[in-house]
Amino acid sequence: MGPYIARRLLQMVPLLAGISIVVFTLIQMAPGGPEAALLSTGRFVDPSVVEAYRVKLGVDQPVPMQYLRWAAAALTGDLGLSYSTTRPVVHMIGERLPATLELMGSAFLLAAVLAFLIGIASALRPHSWIDLLANGSAFVGIAMPVFWLGLLLQLVFAVELGWAPVSGTHTVGTSSLGDHLAHLVLPAIVLASRYVASWSRYFRASLISALQSDYVRTARAQGLSERRVLFTHAVRNALVPVVSAMALGLADLVSGAVITETVFAWPGIGRLFVQAMFGRDYPVLMGILLMGSLTVIVFNLAADVVYGLLDPRIRYE
Predict the structure, then answer these.
(1) Is the separation of the CB atoms in 178 and 171 below 8 Å?
(2) Is residue 30 classed exposed, middle or buried when 0-12, 13-18 and 19+ CB atoms within 10 A define those classes?
(3) I want to staple 287 with a disulfide (CB 3.0 to 4.6 A). Which of 48, 89, 234, 282 is the partner?
(4) Confidence grade of residue 8 (pLDDT, cut at 50, 70, 90)
């Protein structure tokens, strides 16, 4: 396993380099730049000031030279300066990262637990009213737009019932843990909703197949209890194909967080991405997209490692 992980880590280098070239080129082809960020403030800016600003940031040079400068700086951990704030992009992302990790972690745990429980209940009683209800809810959850569900929950539970805050991370003048968790509930539910729907269906189908396999029948013939057969033999093997969907879903949480953080004014990377996109702040966009690409690659590697842990038959040579 060690040599395989080392080989995959080495493969990340050219992969990330290729992704950065494509993303950097596409961003440079888009309209805007430092002058657009300055003019978007609504204040009059002298053309000479704009040109001096372009020279200072190095965007007056050819695109290949700009990329080489950016890549050389990125290797040292420097992702450049924001066009709109002139602050280091690394610092801006670092300030927003904890909030996004908190929201993503909460949504992932909630989705994993609910999908596990719903999947087991549906697999043990296929075509029952529990399975039909779970199946119908899954279709609704997959088809429902995230922003619409967020607005609906805000209207019902925050505005009409007053059970939860509308947005933000805390109430003004309050810094208690309970208040913060109350603000986290609705965004985490919204972000987890579509993953509960898909993961529970994956797990249900995989567990039904595992329960009908020969090794489960053999375990029952040996007199093992149904609980031990289920959790020791069936569930462990049923999780192997589901891990792939969960690993990719964990990476996809980054894109889902963009909409959720915007709807609930959650001060994370997703909201920063939207602000940078509308402000045409391309260094910030580049930094966030590169971080998202790295997240997808790392989670795919983590999924392969978990495969080997769950299924002893899988060996990476």
Answers:
(1) no
(2) exposed
(3) 89
(4) confident
Residue 229: CB atoms within 10 A of its CB come to 19
Q: Are 73 and 80 in contact (CB under 8 A)?
A: yes
Give the domain range for residue 52: 1-84+279-317
9 and 141 housed in the same domain: no
Is residue 11 in a domain? yes
DSSP sequence for 101-113: HHHHHHHHHHHHH
| 89 is a domain residue | no
In the chain, alpha helices (H): 2-29, 34-39, 47-57, 63-74, 89-124, 129-143, 146-153, 177-211, 214-221, 226-228, 235-263, 269-278, 282-310
Q: What are phi and psi of 176, to 5 degrees?
A: -75, 155
How many domains are contained in the chain?
A: 2
Residue 124: pLDDT over 80: yes
Planar angle of CA 233, 236, 238, nearest 5 degrees: 100
Q: Please compute, for residue 29, the number of CA atoms within 13 A of its CA located in the half-sphere on the CB side.
A: 6
Q: pTM of this prediction?
A: 0.79
In the predicted model, what is the mean pLDDT of residues 61-73?
A: 84
Written as one string, the DSSP assignment of 297-309 is HHHHHHHHHHHHH
CA gyration radius for the chain?
Answer: 24
Distance of CA 241 to the CA centre of its chain: 20
Largest CA distance in the chain: 85
Looking at residue 41, its pLDDT comes to 56
Tens digits of residue pLDDT in 247-300: 777 767 776 778 888 888 888 888 888 888 877 788 888 888 888 888 888 877
